[in-house]
């Protein structure tokens, strides 16, 4: 499969810290990227997205950075809270019209300690 | 506004049987995509429907099929179930095609024995 989730990397932070979750993508033609948060027993929740013509996009407490040169995407969460504990997935849109698909990363587990 | 709903939430089937899962999108959303999530393979795209037409398709065998109705509700069917089909099946809806701002449902947990 294109998304392998055998061993989830884990990021442990203290409440109030800033968190940075990284994602590498492989297809230089991908033009749209999304970050999702998935809590246990729930479906993924849309956090923020970015198109390839942008380098940075900010939301409420979250920032996504896109570095097309090294095919790297990051999600920054400011003032991390215990409620931010979840698995975070990046996704990229690949392919041409009619054959497009979203390809998800492995996921990173974020653990926030009070 | 109600979120994406999926029925049933849990399902147990026997190898060789078939199964149909249902997804009701957010009101006004016309695109529905289906995904399979397993511990080994992670989240994988199955297909996307928009205005009752399949617009995009992932790399799954023909045993996996879907359809969309005029009210945008969608169903996914898996025939001749295999043990490896055990997974969480998620659907996501969005206003238009192209995977922009998709909102996921809670999923249907399918167990094949």
Give your account of this protein's structure.
- The complex is a heterodimer of chains A (114) and B (113).
- Chain A has 114 residues and is mainly β.
- Helix content of chain A is 0%, strand content 52%.
- Chain A has no helices and 10 strands.
- In chain A, the strands form 2 sheets. In chain A, strands 1, 3, 4, 8, 9 and 10 form a 6-stranded mixed sheet that branches.
- In chain A, strand 8 (86-94) and strand 9 (101-104) form a beta hairpin.
- Chain B has 113 residues and is mostly beta strands.
- In chain B, the strands form 2 sheets. In chain B, strands 2, 4, 5, 6, 9, 10 and 11 form a 7-stranded mixed sheet that branches. A 4-stranded antiparallel sheet of chain B has the order 1-3-8-7, with no helix packed on it.
- Chain B is globular and about 35 Å long.
Short description:
The complex is a heterodimer of chains A (114) and B (113). Chain A is mainly β.
Span from first to last CA of chain B?
A: 37 Å
Quaternary assembly: heterodimer
Any idea what the shape of chain B is?
globular
The average pLDDT value of chain B, as a whole number, equals: 95
Count of alpha/pi helices of chain B = 0
Specify the structural class of chain A: mainly beta
Please give the largest β-sheet of chain A.
Answer: 6 strands, mixed
- Biggest sheet overview of chain B: 7 strands, mixed
Number of strands of chain A: 10
How much β-strand is present in the residues of chain B? Answer: over 45%
Of all chain pairs, the largest interface belongs to: A-B, 30 and 29 residues
What is the helical fraction of chain B, as a range of percent?
under 10%
How many extended strands of chain B?
A: 11
Helix and strand pattern of chain A: EEEEEEEEEE
SSE string of chain B: EEEEEEEEEEE
Number of helices of chain A: 0
Q: SS-based structural class of chain B?
A: mainly beta
Radius of gyration of chain B: 13 Å
């Amino acid at each position: 499969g294109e998304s392998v989730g055998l061993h989830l990397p884990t990021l442990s932070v203290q409440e109030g810290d800033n968190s940075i979750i990284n994602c590498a993508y492989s297809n230089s033609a991908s033009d749209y990227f999304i970050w999702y948060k998935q809590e246990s027993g729930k479906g993924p929740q849309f956090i923020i997205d970015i198109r390839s013509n942008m380098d940075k996009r900010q939301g409420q407490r979250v920032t996504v950075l896109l570095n097309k040169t090294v095919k790297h995407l990051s999600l920054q969460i400011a003032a991390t809270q215990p409620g931010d504990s979840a698995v975070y997935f990046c996704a990229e849109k690949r392919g041409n019209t009619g054959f497009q698909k979203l390809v998800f990363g492995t996921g990173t587990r974020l653990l926030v300690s009070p | 506004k109600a979120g994406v709903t999926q029925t049933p939430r849990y399902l147990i089937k026997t190898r060789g049987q078939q199964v149909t899962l249902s997804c009701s999108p957010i009101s006004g959303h016309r695109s529905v995509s289906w995904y399979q999530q397993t511990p080994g393979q992670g989240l994988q795209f199955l297909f996307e429907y928009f205005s009752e037409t399949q617009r995009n398709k992932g790399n799954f065998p023909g045993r996996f099929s879907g359809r969309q109705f005029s009210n945008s509700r969608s169903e996914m069917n898996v025939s001749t179930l295999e043990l490896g089909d055990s997974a969480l099946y998620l659907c996501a809806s969005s206003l238009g095609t192209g995977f922009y701002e998709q909102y996921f449902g809670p999923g249907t947990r399918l167990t094949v024995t």
